[in-house]
Write a structure and sequence with these properties.
The complex is a heterodimer. Chain A is mainly β. Chain A has one domain: Neuraminidase (6 Propeller), CATH 2.120.10. In chain A, 10% of the residues lie in helices and 42% in strands. Chain A is built from four helices and 28 strands. Chain B is α/β, with parallel strands linked by helices. Chain B has three domains: 232 residues, Rossmann fold (3-Layer(aba) Sandwich); 173 residues, Rossmann fold, CATH 3.40.50; 70 residues, no CATH class. In chain B, 34% of the residues lie in helices and 25% in strands. Chain B contains 17 helices and 20 strands. In chain B, strands 6-7-8-3-9-10 form a six-stranded mixed sheet, sandwiched between helices. Chain B has a six-stranded mixed sheet with strand order 16-17-18-13-19-20, with helices on both faces. Chain B has a four-stranded antiparallel sheet with strand order 2-1-4-5, covered by helices on one side. In chain B, a hairpin with a 2-residue loop joins strand 14 and strand 15. In chain B, helix 12 crosses helix 13 and helix 12 runs parallel beside helix 14. Chain B is globular and about 70 Å long. Classes of the chains: A mainly beta, B alpha/beta. At the A-B interface, loops of A face strand 11, strand 12 and strand 20 of B.
Chain lengths: 365, 504
């Protein structure tokens, strides 16, 4: 059957691409309260990304680069524009993305040693994740060519497909594109000889070996929108899902006229859309679609904001997960890093740095 | 012949009761007594002779030799009507209701007056069913009732007929936990009214809970009769099977849980009429996924949609994904070809061809999978696969040519399982795999389920029997009102938590 006719039938019957369904969180993604029970290391407004070089844990919050010292964040360097991504190398180098439009390589003292504003000949617009690959190159994800890093929700609501992933070799000054036309690239990781990236609006991960063609997705469709990743010492990697999917949002994403009018007439904080945190205004759509009983919000209700981190094996199987459910606080997890035998997480929704202890096998203790 | 003498409180007695079919004894020299107002549990593996014994008491089959006494008087029952004349009624496992009649009409069948006012019949039936706490609509056609409700009507009919001795054959097999509770209350109520109750059950806990005395049969012979206080699970099982199975059956919390493999089956927001409401779940390779829920929780319907046996809602019916690819079957054969096997909860109606042999039945399963060479039938191949699977699943029969209807429940179930496994499926859905199956066969069926999961197959076990779900599953999904409401890892689940999730 020709594709347009099939699509028309799908729309009529609610099937195929028009089936408004969301993968269930069960099995290894069964909800728990690990993130809500996690130790709060510090509160830092604007906190967005973290990275570990094995010695120190680095934190970006707004325009400031911090280093964690015990329970405190020590300011290392202040930039003119907000830091939109951060990476740390075991040899002490740091990489930052500034305002999504510029990459800088810093030495151990925090001084800039290299910089670029383009990737594969295309200007950076929303660089939101970085990862060192070897000793001389950096993987970069650029979410959108239309919207900045803070306007990810605008990109989602407009079905953005302008994301790209590339490799920047700062020694040679060359950069190459590994993938483009992505539905919001948000997160990169060099692991097992692969360059991996998150494609958030497609709810899956992509990968490429070297500079070859993109490999088929190995991770099954996820119940959340995947974002930044970090290597796990026990094998595999940690994957954050900064917001989660609901049938309501899936429905809104299929209703073009409604969505367009909502975007024109309603303030973005009150859109029927996922959010990093919720419950701050009575005007915003109700968390959990108002599933309350006896005044208590049901933790299993469909989330407007949620906290979710997945431990994924190299072959793409989800091994375990960490949750902050609908009635929890630690939502909008945007970054994760293993450091000093523990797992550190950034809850951007609550502006908190969290710490979860790991056991000898690299799992949550 | 000497005048029979019996104890005054004994209402029914069998002396040296023997029943032979074609010269082969089904029971042999069995002595049995039933006291007035006692609840007597009759236990034994399938094929032990329980049904034969109770059929003799109910006048369904005559004795080959021996004697039966009712109220101290020797009787010879030739028909169930004779038995009813002596105050004996039997509630059969397979209901004997007339499907085209309503519940009320079935209740009063055989007790009609010269002039019957339908409204009066319905009102009487309604009042009577309410007095038993049975939630059954008296105006409903029996054909439309589920197995549990049919069983309730059957029980109600026996009570209504003022029997002094009521024999229940597996009365609780298809009842929900709440309905079971009502049934137990009913049995205690009957006892208070001086009615004697014999019940056959494979749930040993029920025997230990309900019965005053327990009789165990094995291979057609009487093994032991004793007060309940002198029994525990281990002694009953020992008596039933002649070996200790307590370590291989229920009652133990699972300590080792298999690791989750690939997500083979994913059900997303599935809808099917009023039975399945936005249901979502996943099934993983290399694990046994247990699905627990009360009758009507939508468990069976969900998996019947998966297997192409029934269809989801036409509009916005949700998605079923097999290894990430959406599937929607018009007929069950397509599911079989994709490696999905559904092993029915109702083996007698949907599970096998009762007049065919074991080998023929198993071969039919293979023919369903063969695709392009369907229609080419090989007797030699049928014998080969029949022998292989009969041996693997330990199907016990005099010969492979015996008709499946002549096998015991446990062996019938093994044939139904073999009929699906011969298709070499990747997703195997067992719906109530051990309902009406004796403990020996339960252990063997559980072993087979575990073997399949160890081989990396994705196995689903739907069961209303909580100890079974807890002992065999790696993860337990609890369904309520048409959807899965919670999930437990088997090593963390408790009966109380599962039941709470299933009810509240």
């Amino acid at each position: 059957m020709p594709n347009p006719i099939q699509r028309w039938f799908d729309l009529l019957l609610g099937r195929g691409t028009a089936a408004i369904t969301v993968p269930i969180m069960d099995g290894a993604i069964k909800p728990n309260r690990v993130l809500d029970d996690a130790a709060v290391v510090l509160n830092l407004p604007g906190m967005d990304d973290i990275a570990s070089d094995g010695q120190h844990l680095w934190i970006s919050a707004g325009t400031v680069l911090y280093r964690l010292d015990g329970q405190e964040a020590l300011e290392v360097r202040r930039f003119d524009t907000p830091i939109s991504a951060l990476a740390a190398h075991a040899q002490g180098q740091l990489a930052v993305a500034l305002g999504g439009r510029e990459l800088q390589l810093l030495d151990a003292s925090g001084a800039t040693v290299a910089q670029t504003r383009a990737l594969g000949g295309r200007a950076l617009h929303s660089a939101n994740a970085l990862a060192f690959e070897g000793g001389d190159s950096l993987l970069v994800s650029d979410g959108s060519e239309q919207f900045g890093p803070d306007q990810w929700c605008h990109d989602l609501m407009q079905h953005g497909k302008t994301g790209k992933v590339g490799r920047w070799n700062w020694k040679s000054g060359n950069s190459t594109l590994l993938a483009q036309g992505l539905a919001y690239a948000f997160g990169v990781l060099a692991t097992s000889g692969l360059a991996r990236w998150s494609e958030s609006w497609k709810h899956t991960l992509g990968s490429v070996r070297g500079t070859g063609a993109a490999l088929p997705a190995t991770v099954a469709e996820l119940p959340g929108y995947p974002s930044r990743m970090a290597q796990a010492q026990g094998g595999g990697f940690w994957l954050t899902c900064f917001v989660c999917r609901t049938q309501l949002v899936e429905f809104v994403l299929r209703e073009d006229a409604y969505r367009l009018r909502m975007m024109q007439e309603v303030h973005p904080s009150q859109w029927v859309a996922p959010a990093l945190s919720s419950g701050k205004s009575f005007l915003e759509p109700l968390q959990g679609a108002g599933v309350k009983a006896m005044g208590v919000l049901k933790p299993w209700a469909p989330p407007r904001s949620y906290g979710l981190v997945l431990r994924v094996a190299d072959d793409g199987r989800v091994l375990s997960s960490l949750h902050s459910q609908v009635d929890g606080q630690h939502h909008g997890i945007t970054a994760v890093a293993e450091h000093a035998g523990a797992l550190y997480l950034v809850s951007k929704g609550s502006a908190r740095l969290l710490r979860v202890e790991l056991n000898s096998t690299g799992d949550v203790a | 012949m000497n005048a029979p003498q019996t104890l005054p409180d004994v209402v029914l007695e069998l002396r040296d009761a023997t029943k032979k079919y074609g010269g082969v004894p089904a029971i042999e020299s069995v002595n049995f007594t039933l006291r007035r107002g006692e609840i007597h549990a009759l236990l034994g593996e399938n094929g032990a002779g329980k049904s034969t014994l109770t059929k003799i008491m109910a006048g369904v089959v005559p004795l080959s030799s021996g004697q039966m006494l009712v109220e101290g008087k020797a009787v010879e029952l030739k028909t169930p009507l004779d038995a009813r004349g002596h105050g004996i009624a039997m509630v059969f496992q397979e209901t004997s209701l007339v499907p085209t009649m309503t519940v009320a009409q079935n209740l009063f069948l055989g007790r009609e007056k010269f002039y019957n006012r339908l409204r009066g019949v319905y009102i009487s039936a309604q009042q009577f069913l309410q007095s038993l706490n049975f939630d059954v609509d008296p105006t409903a056609s029996v054909a439309l009732l589920g197995a549990a409700k049919k069983q309730m009507v059957e029980i109600a009919r026996a009570v209504l007929h003022d029997a002094r001795i009521i024999i229940f054959d597996e009365p609780t097999a298809s009842l929900t936990p709440e309905e079971k509770k009502y049934f137990f209350d009913l049995v205690f109520n009957l006892k208070e009214r001086g009615v004697s109750v014999i019940f056959i059950s494979h749930a040993l806990e029920e025997a230990l809970l309900l019965a005053d005395r327990i009789t165990v049969l094995r291979d057609g012979q009487h093994v032991v009769t004793d007060d309940k206080a002198n029994f525990d699970r281990a002694r009953i099982i020992q008596a039933m099977v002649g070996r200790d199975l307590s370590q291989t059956l229920y009652g133990q919390t699972k300590t080792a849980v298999r690791k989750q493999g690939e997500c083979v089956l994913s059900v997303r927001n599935l809808r099917m009429a009023s039975m399945v409401k936005n249901n979502s779940l996943s099934v993983f390779a290399g694990q046994v996924t247990g699905v627990f829920g009360l009758v009507g929780s939508g468990r069976t319907e969900t998996f019947k949609v998966v297997a192409g046996l029934i269809k989801r809602d036409f509009f916005h019916g949700g998605e079923v994904l097999l290894r990430g690819k959406p599937i929607r079957y018009r007929v069950a054969r397509q599911a079989v070809e994709d490696g999905i096997a559904y092993i029915t909860e109702d083996r007698k109606v949907e599970g096998f061809f009762e007049t065919m042999s074991i080998a023929q039945n198993i071969y039919m399963g293979l023919l369903g999978k063969l695709g392009h060479i369907r229609g080419v039938v090989s007797g030699a191949k049928a014998k080969e696969v029949g022998d292989f699977w009969s041996k693997l699943l330990k199907v016990r029969a005099i010969s492979q040519d015996v008709k499946v209807i002549e096998l015991s429940g446990g062996n019938q179930q093994k044939v139904v399982i073999a009929k699906s496994l011969v298709q070499n499926p990747d997703v195997i859905i067992f719906d109530e795999p051990t309902r009406g199956v004796d403990v020996g066969a339960i252990a063997e069926i559980h072993a087979e389920i575990n073997r399949l999961a160890d081989e990396g197959k994705a196995v689903v076990v739907i069961s209303s029997y909580l100890p079974e779900v807890m002992s065999i599953s790696d993860r337990i999904l609890v369904a309520r009102q048409g959807k899965v409401v919670t999930e437990f890892a088997a090593d963390q689940a408790t009966q109380e938590a599962i039941m709470y999730a299933a009810i509240h």
